[in-house]
């Protein structure tokens, strides 16, 4: 080991570690501390033990919000990955085979760019745009497309469908990125494998399920982790798009929105921190579970 | 771009670990929302400027100390501050430099500064992102304004500041009997309509509930939505309409009970009757799509004569100024009597001071902040404010004899007709934000989802008692 290696490494690490400690670790510790208080956000801090968590247990809105987060956690990754895989497959190997070489559908390069566009828009802009798409009267884009004889669909104003609308927006926004991610993954699968399979008379369907998916499994798991994290957030879309922010009647409330509202609107920073602590453990559990599952991955390209 | 992903593919474990790390970082990002308002030490009071009190300087400000003010930039704009108030202030105190800033996000900008012990001297706490003022008062962060209201008026000789204000103005900014906030603008609430449309159709403003529903039938037959409000973000306009009706049935006491979290306040007879009457309007005359619309969208529909009556305050005309066609002339009517045995007359209205301005108790120059407020409460500044914002102020009679706009004239007439039957309304919405939130959802439910008055009352009663029992919520009372 050469002399002077450590100062060199430390030199690199000092700034990021200091930043991480200030803005991540310290924030965590403070959240845990505040979760034990009844602090309003101003003035003196009073410790109340686990009372906030007790209150949380009895808070209907908390359970509702948690259910909505779980709804997103289950459906967002599944639907996004399914659609993105299909698109990526079509873009890369779904087209005609010429001279034994598989290629994407016609114009796949242009599609690839178009699919990525939503990723470039700020989330707030996406929310405002979809607010118009889901407009509840004839001025809304979808309602405007429906025949005049239909009574308008309420979308965000309908308790049964509001959360689904949120899901649709999140999926629309996410798909482009995963199409590109999966395309890259597929690009690294040797075309020999496809050719061999094609020679054996495998259909496109078989190619997709027997070759593409197993060889992409690792990438899919990465996507799963990212999308799971997005499902725990969803704050911006919910805050901007929904009726009565998180309504109607709490039908679209999520944990991150509850944290924000309790902190900045209800002056219950202690309570908000308690929700933050719960969210911390949920995210930790999710990340740990996902990592555990990935340890069993076996197929390598 | 694809190469980047392809390289990451080489070592999936690392990538996965990194992905998980990102996940962990997502939580502190929300955790930091609370952490960034950290601190909260009580003894961070800094050196504060003071001067010698005199007849010319009743608040004893230091004539050379600067004053920092922050103004919410919303419907009222900020020109009244930069073009009227500050020049007026500097005419008297040329050496006191006024540092002006403005924001649309009061809470995000000011709350961290208050907690760090370095607040601006005078703060305009307004907008949808305003700070919970009750909590600020309890934390001792707002300066006591008693000396300000007792000081001589800026430009009305022989009167104190309090003497020059409309009745209830000081009370409305008082917490447990002490004034901490100056509510500057004076808002008249009622049912807003297009006078030109009503005149052309021969519709007259109703005074009884039977007249109201009969007129709604006529309006409905003409293909116009009779009544509506924006459920997506402005259902509190509906809450105010409902509670105004309740106060007319059972006097303002009904609202005081609600503010004081008295058990049974929400299930009392006046509230039930008002909820039943309005629920019926919701069932029959509202456009159900309004639940998903924002206030600007509904207000625009009214400007297009697709909606007849809209419950709102007198800021409406100014807010819609650029969308109002020449065929539209704003006018306001009092809410019709609900029953024949209403305790207040049909002309009674709810008019309240709004837009909080306060001096920070722990700023560098709280007396300077107060002096700035005193300048705002001069007749000259008040008239300037009304001219610029088309909104009345709590300075009584400041805009008398001025022709400003049809809507404002209509509101002024309404005030005149109401005489002594003007009531301030309720404060629970600023005292207990959580209850305010529940009332918005409950009003939406009542008006758009079947008009069940009992459900409305029970739900609000439960929410009110939950707040009453919650020891972490600071309580206030009024009488």
Description:
The complex is a heterodimer of chains A (301) and B (479). By secondary structure, chain A is mainly α. Chain A has one domain: Orthogonal Bundle (MetI-like fold), CATH 1.10.3720. Helices cover 69% and strands 1% of the residues of chain A. Chain A has 12 helices and 2 strands. Chain A has a two-stranded antiparallel sheet with strand order 1-2. In chain A, a hairpin with a 2-residue loop joins strand 1 (97-98) and strand 2 (101-102). In chain A, helix 7 packs across helix 9 (204-233). The radius of gyration of chain A is 24 Å and the shape is globular. Chain B is α/β, with parallel strands linked by helices and 479 residues long. Chain B has 2 domains: 67-187 and 352-423, D-Maltodextrin-Binding Protein, domain 2 (3-Layer(aba) Sandwich), CATH 3.40.190.10; 189-348 and 426-469, Periplasmic binding protein-like II (D-Maltodextrin-Binding Protein, domain 2, 3-Layer(aba) Sandwich). Chain B has helices at 2-10, 12-35, 79-92, 106-116, 133-138, 146-150, 169-172, 195-201, 209-221, 236-250, 253-259, 269-285, 295-303, 316-319, 366-376, 379-389, 406-418, 428-431, 433-448, 453-469; strands at residues 67-72, 98-103, 122-125, 174-175, 178-179, 182-194, 225-227, 307-313, 330-333, 349-359, 392-393, 422-423. In chain B, strands 1, 2, 3, 6, 7, 8, 9, 10, 11 and 12 form a 10-stranded mixed β-sheet that branches. In chain B, strands 4-5 form a two-stranded antiparallel ribbon. In chain B, strand 1 (67-72), helix 3 and strand 2 (98-103) form a beta-alpha-beta unit. In chain B, helix 3 (79-92) packs across helix 15 and helix 10 (236-250) crosses helix 12 (269-285). Chains A and B meet through helix 1, helix 7, helix 9, helix 11 and helix 12 of A and helix 1, helix 2, helix 4, helix 5 and helix 19 of B.
């Amino acid at each position: 080991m050469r002399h002077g290696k450590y100062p060199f490494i430390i030199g690199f690490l000092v700034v990021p570690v200091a930043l991480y400690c200030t803005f991540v670790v310290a924030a965590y510790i403070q959240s845990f501390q505040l979760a034990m208080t009844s602090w309003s956000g101003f003035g003196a801090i009073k410790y109340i033990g686990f009372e906030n968590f007790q209150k949380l247990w009895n808070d209907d809105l908390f359970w509702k919000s948690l259910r909505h987060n779980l709804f997103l956690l289950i459906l967002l990754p599944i639907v996004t990955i399914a659609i993105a895989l299909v698109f990526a497959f079509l873009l890369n190997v779904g087209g005609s085979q010429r001279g034994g070489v598989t290629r994407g559908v016609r114009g796949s390069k242009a599609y690839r760019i178009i699919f990525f566009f939503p990723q470039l828009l700020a989330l707030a802009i996406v929310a405002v745009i979809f607010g118009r798409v889901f407009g509840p009267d004839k001025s809304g884009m979808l309602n405007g497309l429906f025949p005049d004889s239909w009574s308008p669909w309420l979308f965000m104003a309908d308790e049964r469908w509001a959360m689904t609308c949120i899901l649709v927006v999140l999926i629309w926004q996410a798909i482009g990125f995963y199409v590109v991610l999966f395309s890259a993954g597929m690009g690294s699968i040797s075309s020999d494998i496809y050719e061999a399979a094609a020679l054996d008379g495998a259909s496109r369907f078989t190619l997709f399920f027997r070759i593409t998916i197993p060889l992409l499994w690792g990438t899919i798991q990465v996507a799963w982790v990212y999308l799971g994290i997005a499902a725990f957030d969803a704050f911006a879309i919910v805050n901007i798009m929904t009726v009565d922010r998180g309504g109607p009647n709490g039908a679209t409330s999520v944990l991150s929105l509850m944290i924000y509202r309790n902190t900045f609107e209800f002056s219950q920073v202690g309570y908000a921190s308690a929700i933050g602590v719960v969210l911390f453990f949920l995210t930790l559990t999710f990340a740990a579970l996902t990592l555990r599952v990935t340890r069993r991955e076996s197929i390598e390209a | 771009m694809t190469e980047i992903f392809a390289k990451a593919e080489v070592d999936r474990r690392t990538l996965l670990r990194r992905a998980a790390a990102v996940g962990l970082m997502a939580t502190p990002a929300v955790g930091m929302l609370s952490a960034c308002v950290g601190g909260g030490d009580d003894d961070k009071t800094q050196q504060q400027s003071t001067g010698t009190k005199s007849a010319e300087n009743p608040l004893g400000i230091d004539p050379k100390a600067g004053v920092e003010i922050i103004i919410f930039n919303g419907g009222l704009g900020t020109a009244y501050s930069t073009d009227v108030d500050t020049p007026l202030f500097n005419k008297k105190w040329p050496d006191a430099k006024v540092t002006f800033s403005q924001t649309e996000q009061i809470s995000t900008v000011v709350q961290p500064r208050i907690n760090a012990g370095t607040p601006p001297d005078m703060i305009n706490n307004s907008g949808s992102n305003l700070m919970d003022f009750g909590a600020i008062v309890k934390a001792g962060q707002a300066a006591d304004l008693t000396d300000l209201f007792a000081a001589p008026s800026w430009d009305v000789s022989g009167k104190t500041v309090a003497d020059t204000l409309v009745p209830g103005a000081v009370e409305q900014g008082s917490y447990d009997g002490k004034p901490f906030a100056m509510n500057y603008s004076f808002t008249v609430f009622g049912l807003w309509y297009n006078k030109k449309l009503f005149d052309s159709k021969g519709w007259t403003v109703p005074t009884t509930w039977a007249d109201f529903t009969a007129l709604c039938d006529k309006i409905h037959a003409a293909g116009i939505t009779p009544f509506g409000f924006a459920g997506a973000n402005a259902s509190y306009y509906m809450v105010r309409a409902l509670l105004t009706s309740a106060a007319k049935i059972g006097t303002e006491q009904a609202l005081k009970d609600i503010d004081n979290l008295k058990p049974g306040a929400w299930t009392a007879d006046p509230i039930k009757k008002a909820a039943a009457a309005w629920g019926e309007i919701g069932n029959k005359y509202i456009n159900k799509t309004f639940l998903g619309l924002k206030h600007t969208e509904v207000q625009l529909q009214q400007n297009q004569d697709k909606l007849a009556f809209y419950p709102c305050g007198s800021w409406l005309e100014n807010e819609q100024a650029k969308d109002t066609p020449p065929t539209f002339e704003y006018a306001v009517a009092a809410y019709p009597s609900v029953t024949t045995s209403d305790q207040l007359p049909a002309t009674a209205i709810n008019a309240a001071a709004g837009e909080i301005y306060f001096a920070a108790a722990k700023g560098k120059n709280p007396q300077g902040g107060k002096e700035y407020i005193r300048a705002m409460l001069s007749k000259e500044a008040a008239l300037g404010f009304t001219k610029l914002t088309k909104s009345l102020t709590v300075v009584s009679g400041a805009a008398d004899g001025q022709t400003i706009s049809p809507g404002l004239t209509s509101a002024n007439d309404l005030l005149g007709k109401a005489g002594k039957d003007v009531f301030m309304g309720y404060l629970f919405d600023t005292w207990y934000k959580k209850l305010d939130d529940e009332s918005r959802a409950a009003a939406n439910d009542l008006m758009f989802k079947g008009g069940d008055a009992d459900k409305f009352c029970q739900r609000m009663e439960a929410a009110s008692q939950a707040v009453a029992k919650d020891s972490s919520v600071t309580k206030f009372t009024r009488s």
